[in-house]
Amino acid sequence: MARRVPKVIAGKNCDDPIIDYKDTEYLTKFLTPQGQILSRRRSGFCAQCQKQLKSAVKRARHLSLLPFVG
Predict the structure, then answer these.
(1) Residues 33, 26, 46, CA angle at the centre, nearest 5°?
(2) How far is 51 from 5, CA to CA, in rounded Å?
(3) What phi, psi does 65 have (nearest 5°)?
(4) 69: closest CA among 27, 25, 29, 36?
């Protein structure tokens, strides 16, 4: 049985992307259909960029730009 390889969205070298809470189209790339944030392994971000992503998604949720986890 073949093992399923996770889909990586960003490259392993994230090169410090600009993660803005107002850019909801970019943030939704890193959310599951249920609204959960993808893990570091699936998103391809380093630890620092993953923390920036997490805070940007939380900020966008509090401003009701993104839905909370349903």
Answers:
(1) 95
(2) 24
(3) -85, -30
(4) 36
Which structure tokens are listed for 3? 């093992």
Q: Give the pTM.
A: 0.82
Q: How far apart are CA 24 and CA 43, in angstroms?
A: 16
The model's pLDDT over 30-43, given as tens digits with 9 standing for 90+, comes to: 999 999 999 998 98
Q: How far apart are CA 15 and CA 18, in angstroms?
A: 9
Task: Name the H helices within 1-70.
Answer: 24-28, 40-43, 47-62
Give the position of tokens 């349903």.
Answer: 70
Q: Which domains does the chain carry?
A: 9-70 (4.10.640.10)
pLDDT in tens, 11-31: 666 777 889 999 999 999 999
Tokens of 17: 């992307």
